[in-house]
Amino acid sequence: MTLGVAPESEGVTSPRRNGEPLLALDDLYVEFRGRRQTVAALNGLSYSVAAGETLAVVGESGSGKSVSAQAVMGILDCPPARIRRGEIRYRGTDILRLPERQRRKLRATKIAMVFQDALSALNPVYTVGEQIAEMFRVHRGDSHGEARRKAIEMMERVRIPDARRRVGDYPHQFSGGMRQRIMIAVALALDPEVLIADEPTTALDVTVQAQIMKLLRELKDESNLALILITHDLGVVAEVADRIAVVYAGQVVEEAPVGPLFASPAHPYTKGLIASIPRLGHRGERLPTLRGAPPTLAAPPTGCPFSPRCPYAQPVCVDNVPPLRDVLPSRRSACHFAEQVLADA
Amino acid sequence: MTEPVAADQAMAAGQPALLAELAEGSLRRDAWLVLRRKPEFFLSATLILVMLFVGAFPGAVAGLFGHGDPRVCDLARSGGGPSSGHPFGYDLQGCDLYANVIYGARPSISIGLLTTVTSFVVSAVLGIVAGYHGGIVDALVSRVMDVFFGFPFILGGIIILTAFPDRKVWTIALVLALFSWPTGTRLMRSSALALRDADYVLAARALGASSPRIMFRHVFPNAVAPLLVLSTLAVGGIIAAEASLTFLGVGLRLPAISWGLQLSVAQGYLRQYPHMLFFPALFLSLTVLGFILLGDALRDAFDPKLR
Fold this sequence. Notes:
The complex is a heterodimer. Helices cover 34% and strands 23% of the residues of chain A. Chain A is of the alpha/beta class. The longest helix of chain A is centred in the middle third of the chain and has 18 residues, at 206-223. Chain A starts with 20 loop residues before the first strand and ends with a helix. By secondary structure, chain B is mainly alpha-helical. Chain B is 74% helix and 0% strand. Chain B contains 13 helices and no strands. Chain B is elongated, with a radius of gyration of 24 Å.
């Protein structure tokens, strides 16, 4: 297929819930080359997302979840970063092999991204209206007036009250939650099909967090977006995601629909994560924790990266890397003893 | 969706003061508010406007006392002191000194502005490209800058200008610009370097902006304030440098009219005709003072730390 600007379907596109992935990361290897050491940030990471679906990519700091988003958006700093292997397929085309011009066109018009901290992700010297309008002017060639009108429309779409008056305000004049809405408006301006939200609510307090998540879900339903939600907050995930990909040491260790994953994890790491969520009734006890620390990716352990911390670990785990395999219909786990972990739950 | 929105707005109400101070978005507006309250801003702005007017329309000002032509000379009056119709007296050739000083403003100010604008543009472009792209481009620009930093400004000017026997305003401006661009470039480069990894630059890239667009629409406006201040301060220095070069005999040449030339001639007759030195020097100092005061005021206005 060609990746020029395809004729835009205005408004709501027809639902395409046929399971065909819209965006797929396949066996991605990314490394950062320092002067003294090379850090392997992604080690064969794969996940995919279909239209109308929300995939949550969950992992702790340094697990590589943000790097995967940056690889998709083409904003990895190369060097020191280098994509060693793998494909990122959008509608079947490997975008890593596209010339830079086409890739740039693809960003924003097809795949867009929302950043964690909206205050630093919005340019302080332009009004929010100008920044939303810039999308229409640059990518669509709209006139100033036309772009401004559409900018106000977008601000209304992300439920910013009194948009007509606030279109001329600067980012610092908005509250954290409103700024995040502006960020979302910029990202969704050109009706992309895939939206990547990298910790969109981490910088916000809990009430506002809930509002932003609700907004994202509503917008996703309105335009049948494929939403990739990168987060370390399992609470957020449980509410909005359809599927979860758990990332550890630069690879997906478990992938499953939300319900089953919380009910019966198929990987010891997921199991440990879920066990460490505080619950009602746990009063007065110490929370269970995962022993040890995540591996340094400059010198990853041989075999399964989780083996040093794993209660199920056997000699085979140090010798062989467990592949990500189907353990149940629509459930995949990268553990030699997935069946046993499942049974224990 | 109304209640959460209201909560959001309430949150905003709690922190605007802090945010306004932190954010750069209001920088230009804040700067203007600060400037408005500064007497030295109005003093310097008035000085500069007057000098600019004199430089642009010397004919209109020179005739104020009835002897507006700087080339009407009477050798019998050589070195004569101030008298009726000739408030500044006469120069060595017996020409009206007031008219000469007025006509001398144009070359000085043109050289000052031309040099500054040239080196501003060069600094902005090279600094941003070097800072934003880094790598080999940055290495190249930085090394060339180092070479030029090694030359003493005046010495470099003397060496190159001696090679041009026919010196015009623009020759001198270009030579001065040749030695003044590295300072601004270094400043711009460091600003761009700091902004390269700013989230909004990353966001612009993620949203499909091209490199030139990011550099000049997103990095430039956020990085330009220090360069603007530096350039305003530099105008005064450049005007003084032009006078120095002319005084040393490598600037403009007679029969051109300029403050530097007038000073150069007057220097030999300081004890007999002090007024010949005093008046051009006064105008030169006032102009330089105007630009330096304006630069100072701008620096204070753009630097939130000094508030």
